[in-house]
Predict the structure.
Amino acid sequence: MAKILAALCVVACVLLACAEQKVPTQVQANKPLPLLHIQPEVYQLGDIKEGEPAIATFLIRNNHSKPIELVDIQTSCGCTAAKPESFVIMPHDFTQLQVTVDTIAKQSNIRKTISVKDSLGNEASALLIFNVVENPHLSLNRKIKGIFDGKCASCHFKPLVGVKEPSKLYEVGCAMCHGVDAEGGYAPKLRGYASLSALRTIISNGVGKPQMPGFSQKNGGPLTPEQITELSKWLVSLPESAQK
Ligand code: HEC
Ligand code: HEC
């Protein structure tokens, strides 16, 4: 009997643990309650059709005994907006934070970090995860063709104009998708390329996708032939893997 009870207890505990992960309203007794807390810490939205906004509502909790003011709300990309219902949160109260991500020209697995800071210097962050799937209607009526168009250009086009240093070019124009160490991330790894000319061709002409259009001025991109050559040489010179 004791054994059965123990087994039941284990099952119940596992179930409870799962439930807690989805709606983390309780924090383990031995872990102090964070004074500023975003819930859930990880929000999984599932599939979103490209072009349809990814929208999630988080709760920001004030576990202080004093009222707080939210002084800073950051999202990593300009395509993500985060609006709190109220900037002031009373003690042991919460406010809602609506996060909206523009999914135009995105594909597959997207992870967005949202971080907040309060007037007492506490910080909290949360992660929004979703999967962008193809939207057949979008290609018929596309206003934004890719990362160089419209409001996207301020971050994905303009910062590359006139930059000479290839490592800097990589940092401002490629790292956000191919990873800071060129080890890959949202887009493939760019280390280990043997052919300089293949690399130049891909960078100039792109791969026919809105996320990776041709970067040459000839193809409507920001880069001159010299910039593309220097960037390609620099990439080819990188060791196969980044030394940490
Ligand atoms: C304010 C600057 C800014 C603007 C404007 C901007 N982006 Fe980005 N973008 C970034 C940064 C920074 C990243 C790196 C990922 C991150 O930090 O969220 C990124 C990442 C991406 C990615 C990789 C997937 C991802 O979300 O991580 C794609 C695709 C992308 N942007 C497309 C676009 C498109 C299309 C637009 C216009 C509709 C756009 N971006 C507007 C700064 C910007
Ligand atoms: C907004 C995201 C984004 C940015 C910025 C970006 N790329 Fe890409 N890139 C991609 C994606 C996505 C692919 C893969 C497309 C596919 O094949 O599905 C790709 C593919 C490539 C490939 C082919 C890789 C392979 O394994 O086939 C090369 C080379 C490349 N990019 C170089 C660059 C360089 C150099 C820069 C900076 C000048 C850059 N990319 C900027 C998203 C990006």
